[in-house]
Write a structure and sequence with these properties.
Order of helices and strands: HHHHHHHH
Radius of gyration: 15 Å
Largest sheet: none
Number of helices: 8
Number of domains: 1
Mean pLDDT: 88
Low-confidence stretches: none
Distance between the termini: 21 Å
Number of strands: 0
């Protein structure tokens, strides 16, 4: 699957904006009243926007969908020989364009298209980058 150059630019900008928002939320939580919350509670709170987008566009609970998605995306994400896994191991980061293409392809195979495809691709990409590829794979693949 290939997003157009324009779609990649738009979706990548959306990813960057959401990742900025997450960093800002994390800073706020570090200095705010949520210091007493567990790291898992904080992470779910930080990723609430992405979880809501997943729920709204799939009509499923986020964790239920992410498990389904993880089993479909296992080859693209979790195999050590996958491009994304190699990139993560080498740099500890993933390029937006690579993530969007690979994760969007899985969603397309699962039957998503149009606006839902774009929204879910960004939400899942941000989710994977935020929690880390290895942690995502351990939990959902």
């Amino acid at each position: 699957m290939k997003f157009t150059t324009e779609e990649i630019a738009i979706l990548s900008a959306q990813m960057d904006e959401q990742l900025r928002e997450l960093r800002d939320q994390e800073k706020h939580l570090q200095f705010g009243a949520s210091k007493s919350a567990s790291p898992i509670d904080n992470e779910e709170q930080i990723l609430e926007k992405q979880r809501q987008q997943i729920a709204e566009n799939t009509q499923e609970a986020p964790d239920t969908f992410l498990h389904k998605y993880g089993s479909q995306a296992k080859d693209a994400l979790c195999k050590e020989s996958s491009e994304l896994s190699k990139q993560w191991q080498k740099w500890g980061d993933l390029r937006n364009e690579d993530v969007l293409e690979k994760l969007g392809s899985v969603l397309l195979i699962m039957g998503y298209s149009g606006a839902a495809l774009h929204i879910l691709t960004v939400a899942i990409s941000v989710y994977v980058i935020r929690v880390g590829l290895n942690a995502f794979c351990e939990k959902y693949c």
